[in-house]
Write the structure tokens for this entry.
Amino acid sequence: MITIDSLTKRYGAQLAVSDVSFSCTPGTVTGFLGPNGAGKSTTLRALVGLATPTSGTATIGGRAYQDLPNAGRQVGVLLDAGAQHAGRTGREVLTLAALVLGVGQERVDEVLGRVGLAGKPAGKRVGNYSLGMKQRLGLAAALLGDPQVLVLDEPANGLDPDGIYWMRGLLRGFADRGGTVLLSSHLLREVEAVADQLVVIAAGRIVAQGSKQELLGGRGTVVRGPDRVVLERALRTAGITVTPGEGDGLVADADPLAVGQAVAAAGAVLTELRPAGGEGLEELFRSLTHANGSQQVLEVAA
Amino acid sequence: MTTTTAPAAPAAPAVRTPAISAPSLLQLTRVELRKSYDTRAGRWLLIVIGLAALGVVALELFVEDAPKTFADYFAFTQFPVGILLPVLGILLVTSEWSQRTAMTTFALVPRRARVLTAKVLAAVLLAVGGVLAAAAASALATVLTPVFTDSAMDWGLSAAQAGQVLLAQVISVLAGVAFGMLLLSSPLAIVLYFVLPTTFTILVNTVSALDWVRDWLDLSTTTMPMYDGDLDGQGWLQVATSVALWLALPMVLGWLRIRRAEIA
């Protein structure tokens, strides 16, 4: 359980994070979304004790990170995959962490296998790793202590599509076994597929938070067909409100089943029928982060 | 908030509550020690220290006028070791910043003072190792003395010399650690570690009005008698005052700086 309560971090005149509050419960993946420079990394650094908040608190299981007896055994942290000594091998990086955590060498082999770095890659120097390999190594380090909580800053950076798919599965599995995951990203698509809960931050402030369903809910169904006028008439006849969608599409204010039934009843033809979710969230994300972003910049400058 | 509830599987990580103990200082010291030799740069520095000790005794062995006792070799080998060990001490701290591993280190051990204490202890152990390497090279030279020269083997070494040499090396490596802590940058700390005290030494040696400064605050002057085990009563005080300036002061300032710094 991660609890961030009224967290504020100020650097001189600049307000990096302002009154941020949210919590992450066991068994869920929380996506911490926001454009670059919105305050995601600062919040995560404050959570794991690398930065001291100006005010407010961040706790894990009710305790400040600094008060955890052996932090790495309870919280797996990956804040920057590049923050590794270029001259050490992947295995050596994990061996050093294993010595601190008090876990054995067999656990090092286990996590190396789990992130796909077993064998030859483990013996290569980190300086020769691609960014994707560094992310895998960082994830291995985070998993090493078998923690109940994962805190990951932009873990998908540098991963190829296969790697992103693999990481989603890993995080989903971790949460499904009762773990708590907090991951940040500036790309909505990256977290959309795996997160249960979303927290959107822009210019240091939380601008939206809730379950994915809450943020997406009631946004209708995208409908497309060869004859838009016929479709529109069919839907209106069935009492469904219709608004123009992207291109020649329509957005119907009903679920896909009701829309399909209405269209079938009218004998019309469909070429597309799907929930309007994706664009909805994307649109929300863009508008929230943009509007508040520019407003905040003015506030700070004033 | 989400309505998803995870099935309470017996293997669920949230259910498991093992007794988790903090890493001991011994464990952390082992980690810090390992960091000093597990990179190519670190390993080479250690090898160079060993080679330098060997090179120095070889020189002394084949230069005819040089004294040829174990104690002489031992005192002589301390100079290259004393120059290179502090670099190891500096890198022990600054590489965490130049390689940005501080983020990983302090995320694993958020109580930063413990990491710093472990680094100090590791540096002391490295100084002991350096002195042992110098002793080994000196022993080799002593054994070879009758082979290559007309002198006989002379193993005499006073406890005072052994002890004071060890202390002098501990002081020099810790001064390196202190510079590293204060500056958090490898090139800056290495350059200033050599330039500042050397400039200081030259300055206080050329200006005669600064004799008292040299005698009380110049570390290389005050620790000089230690290599032969000749430190006397006032000498100990002079070592103490110069250590306060070149070791304690930067270490306290650096310690406070690291404890407060934001690690990014």
Notes: Chain A has a mean pLDDT of 89. Chain A touches chain B through 54 residues (CB under 8 Å).
